[in-house]
Design a protein that fits this description.
There is one protein chain. By secondary structure, the chain is an all-alpha fold. It has 2 domains: about 70 residues, Orthogonal Bundle (Muramoyl-pentapeptide Carboxypeptidase, domain 1); about 70 residues, no CATH class. Helix 1 packs across helix 3 and helix 4 packs across helix 6. The longest helix is centred in the last third of the chain and has 21 residues. It is elongated. The two termini are about 25 Å apart.
């Protein structure tokens, strides 16, 4: 989990916070509480980190140790965070119509495939990046199911509903597997 606060001007707390985050993904590192005190727990955590990083084991956070911790902190933080949401940007009033090619259609087609496995009324499209007949049929079925105008085209209203339905359908499929 990303820390709610930063410890600017508090290097020991910053060090402890980084070690805590790294340790959540690495069983070789003991837990440390960011209390701002460079006590025995911090010395043990720094020593364990140095050992795992192939650095001289001193328990002291010298420049090389600090830089190695910082280098491992960001990837460890990413592991703890939720996945970055993807926002498809359609221009105001943009509608993707049958026959049009658009890179966003690959994502829409993938979403429709998942939805078709969860909702029997939605037909499964192919993966072409084109709003072809199969994709238009799938979109139309989805629009009808959601009581929005049935056009077989991708507009912002359809995209919003797809984005709302996808996580529910994907999680339901994962639980069945």
């Amino acid at each position: 989990m990303r820390p709610d606060e930063t410890f600017v001007g508090q290097p020991i707390r910053s060090l402890q916070q980084m070690l805590r985050v790294i340790g959540e993904n690495d069983d070789r590192l003991p837990g440390v509480v960011p209390d701002g005190i460079y006590g025995n727990d911090t010395v043990r955590a720094v020593s364990a980190f140095q050992r795992s990083a192939g650095l001289p084991v001193t328990g002291i956070a010298d420049q090389d140790t600090w830089e190695a911790i910082v280098a491992r902190y960001e990837p460890a933080l990413v592991e703890q965070d939720k996945a970055q949401p993807l926002q498809i940007i359609l221009d105001p009033g943009q509608v993707i119509r049958r026959g049009e090619r658009n890179p966003n259609l690959y994502i829409v087609q993938a979403i429709l495939i998942v939805l078709s496995r969860q909702y029997p009324g939605i037909t499964e499209p192919g993966m072409s990046g084109v709003l072809d007949l199969a994709t238009a049929d799938s979109i139309s079925s989805f629009q009808q199911m959601n009581l929005i105008p049935v056009t077989g085209e991708l507009d912002k209203h359809t995209w919003k509903r797809l984005a709302l339905h996808y996580p529910i359908a994907a999680n339901a499929l994962l639980q069945r597997e």
